[in-house]
Specification:
2 domains, alpha/beta, about 325 residues, about 40% helix, six-stranded mixed beta sheet, about 15% strand, Diaminopimelate Epimerase, Chain A, domain 1, inorganic pyrophosphatase (n-terminal core)
Length: about 325
């Protein structure tokens, strides 16, 4: 349901009462997550707050350019054991684009400790899956992207929407709607996009950076994925996979897999798609996409994952064939 004026005021009061604020988001940050982190960080700095960002996994190259300075990555730039020391002064954590602990690996213990020591948590999210992490939560499940919530918060708070903030929010809403082609691209999101364009955002430049910036290694990885394409149920289901050796042999990395699952949805008969990506620990990250008839969120939730009706994800135990069998079985149950 829509966020009330009082909820926006409660979030603003929480921010105003804080001095040192951490901004973070879910593992494998996408455009919505990155855009929200950039926008919120800029907004907080503009009102004089001390801010620190933290990502839980590396960014895709096309998102790195959104940030003037590199934001530390947990496990790479800062170890889990260093969090208590590095974040000792944090009195507020702003979590965007997730409200689920399973999406915040490595941060769970520190969050509990911070809260026990008087720290507060503000959540901005549009997903149905929720662990109720926030002292104040701005949740709107009808929003196409968390960027929509951030935009509304800026307006409610009376914060200045600079050109950089406008572009960050546009990236958030455009990427989470598949460049406005997914079913969540409603009139509300188009109104927001129009307002941002009126403020100087140039969609053609953003599109080029987001969707026409493949590196050669990413193209090679996509080729490997397509070689592993299998169709089931007379073409209604598509499965693909990427193994660790595919990363090693192409030189690609985890962020290079973003949105590759969309390629097989070009096939006319495909109603639902699953991409299995082998992780370093032997598990498989399964990304699920539906054209409408299948609720993939229900499938992901059954195995501990989550997301949206048309786009969800979950981590599964290997081997690959077992993971595929489990997902295919759940998809078929909805036919």
């Amino acid at each position: 349901m829509p966020i009330s004026v009082e909820q926006y005021r409660a979030a603003l009061r929480l921010i105003q009462a804080s001095k040192n604020i951490l901004i973070t988001t879910h593992i494998r940050p996408d455009g919505d997550a990155c855009g929200c982190v950039r926008a919120i960080t800029d907004g907080l700095k503009a009102i004089g707050k001390q801010t620190q960002g933290l990502f839980l996994s590396p960014l895709a190259s096309w998102y790195e350019g959104m940030f003037e300075h590199k934001i530390p990555v947990l496990g790479n730039d800062v170890k889990k054991e260093q969090l208590t020391e590095k974040l000792a002064d944090i009195d507020l954590v702003v979590i965007v684009d997730t409200n689920s602990l399973v999406q915040l690996p490595g941060l769970e213990d520190w969050l509990k400790t911070a809260r026990n020591n008087g720290g507060k948590i503000l959540v901005m999210d549009h997903h149905i899956t929720s662990d109720g992490l926030g002292d104040v939560e701005l949740i709107d499940e009808t929003a196409a992207a968390t960027g929509e919530i951030v935009y509304d918060f800026f307006k409610a708070a009376g914060w200045t929407i600079t050109p950089a903030v406008a572009e960050a929010i546009f990236i958030a809403i455009s990427t989470d709607t598949g460049w406005f082609k997914y079913g969540n691209a409603d009139s509300r999101i188009f109104h927001t996009a129009a307002e941002l364009i009126e403020q100087g955002v140039r969609p053609n430049e953003i599109y080029r950076r987001m969707y026409q910036s493949f590196t050669p290694v990413r193209l090679k990885l996509m080729t490997r994925m397509l070689e592993h394409l299998e169709l089931h149920e007379t073409g209604r289901i598509a499965t693909q996979y990427i193994l660790r050796k595919d990363f090693d042999e192409t030189g690609a990395s985890g962020p290079d897999t973003e949105n590759l699952i969309d390629e097989c949805q070009r096939i006319q008969t495909v109603e639902v798609a699953a991409l299995f990506v082998e992780l370093a620990d032997g598990r498989f990250r399964c990304s699920l996409r539906s054209k409408g008839k299948i609720d993939v969120r229900k499938i992901a939730q059954k195995f501990g994952g989550g997301g949206h009706t048309l786009a969800s994800g979950v981590n599964l135990q290997g081997p690959l064939e077992n993971a595929k069998t489990s997902i295919l079985r759940e998809i078929r149950l909805q036919f």
